[in-house]
Amino acid sequence: MNPRRRVLWINILFGAGLALALPWLAAGLLAHLWGGARGTAWSSQHAYAVRTFWMGVVGVAGALASAGIGFMEPLLALTWLYMAARVTRGFLAWEREEWITDPGRFL
């Protein structure tokens, strides 16, 4: 499978993962397994996908950890919005076939 199609599948699974957790985990697993196509625009998009996965995991873990003090729902909502923004940026970069300039950025 070519790198462009791999990135598309990862982005589709991340998009579905905004509603369900299992596709999100599958997208993170695929992003790690497939790795980047070095020297192409797709390598930056793979790195962005891996970072998106881990930021989502940290956001959900932080929300679950704060359940005892009443911050779980607002943190889950903020994490969801943040992940939706990252998934949208990933789709836009895929459509334009462009590098994600700094896949290590927070957005």
Strand and helix layout:
Elements: H1 3-17, H2 21-34, H3 41-65, H4 72-96
Structural account:
By secondary structure, the protein is mainly α. It has one domain. It is 74% helix and 0% strand. It contains four helices and no strands. Helix 2 packs across helix 3. The longest helix is centred in the middle third of the chain and has 25 residues, at 41-65. The radius of gyration is 14 Å and the shape is elongated. The two termini are 28 Å apart.
Tally of distinct domains: 1
Largest sheet, in brief, is:
none
Q: What are the low-pLDDT stretches, counting only 5+ consecutive residues below 50?
A: none
Can you count the beta strands? 0
How many helical elements? Answer: 4
N-to-C span: 28 Å
Percent of residues in helices: over 70%
Which structural traits does this protein have?
107 residues; mainly alpha; 4 helices
Task: Give a brief rundown of this model.
With 107 residues, this protein is an all-alpha fold. Helix content is 74%, strand content 0%. The chain has one domain (3-96).
